[in-house]
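Human: Note token order:
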Amino acid sequence: MEVRFSCRCPNTDYLGFEASAEAIAASAKKAEELGFDAIFANDHIIVDGSPRSAPWTNCYDPLVALPYIAAKTSRIRLGVSVLIVPYRNPIATAKMLATIDRISGGRLIAGIGVGWNEAEFAALGVPFNERGARTDEYLRVWQACWAPDTVSFAGRFVRFADMYVSPKPLQHPHPPFWSGGASDAALRRAARFAAVWQPTPLPLADLVERKAALQKASEQIGRERPPETRMSFRVDFGKAGAKEVAGELLRYREAAGLDAFQINFHGNRDIAQLLDAMERFVAEVKPQVT
């Protein structure tokens, strides 16, 4: 099976340089041209001054960036890696995601996660200790909103009855969920909701153990096949050459049975260097892995 690769756009400074609309568009068009199967935006709204938050202080809103990407491309799938589900009103979010799926011609991937920045939760007025419960319920709210009208829902945080919400997503029954996180709770969520489990970079032994746990979580709810795994993989050509990068990808592919990776290109000083790294990856790394 040919290995598939997705990547991230620079809607934040996470990839090594200042985010901009021009960089978002250029990377998305380049990713489509090179054959990446999807491109993702990151999500943060308001962050503190801690070192971990530094790359996220400048973040173009992903739910605004995705329609912009859709307008600049025609084939590549697009999503958020990951949308921090409890930050936003779930009914409004369901409406936005359905609209993006329609605008993009059914190309949306709904990446989902619970979030980690306690200060950000506090600023947004969302209880940090409820993030898991809210995420699980909000996903069910999305599914309710995307069902045929009239729609109803009764939960701990959200209630409505006999309401109308359109447009519905173009994809049926809805855009696929790609779920982040590697905790036991995150794996149970992935087993219940997700088409793809997309963890952040993990040591190989940890990834193998967590994949086994995902298999078990899927079996416990009667799911025949667990979600596909697409682990994020950092690539910095300033620190490792194409041969070394390909070797690491092959090591993960063979030991963990991975047929897809999300590539995060690091160490870039500007958009030109990012685009060069994308081209180099496809020309020099991809043939060694596929």
